[in-house]
Design brief:
This is Membrane protein YqzK. This protein is mostly helical. It is built from two helices and no strands.
């Protein structure tokens, strides 16, 4: 009888620890999401930033050249 009670107590301890760490992980994910929710990755750069490429200048590439460029570079 004592062995069953000890096993049940150990099971309850594991369940409480698992539940506690699951709740902690859940709230950590919510906190991380709220930190990065207002992070604007696509804002205009500040300072002396240079534009790397321009699509409206120079000669116009045809659709086939753009397709080959996409296959070669993945852009």
């Amino acid at each position: 009888m004592m062995k069953m009670l000890k096993t049940a107590a150990d099971m309850i301890k594991v369940f409480v620890l698992f539940t506690g760490f699951t709740v902690l992980f859940y709230y950590a994910m919510i906190w991380i999401n709220s930190e990065y929710e207002n992070y604007h990755r696509y804002d205009e750069p500040n300072g002396a930033a240079l534009k790397v490429s321009s699509m409206d200048g120079g000669e116009q590439d045809g659709w086939f050249n753009r397709l080959i460029f996409f296959y070669l570079n993945g852009e």
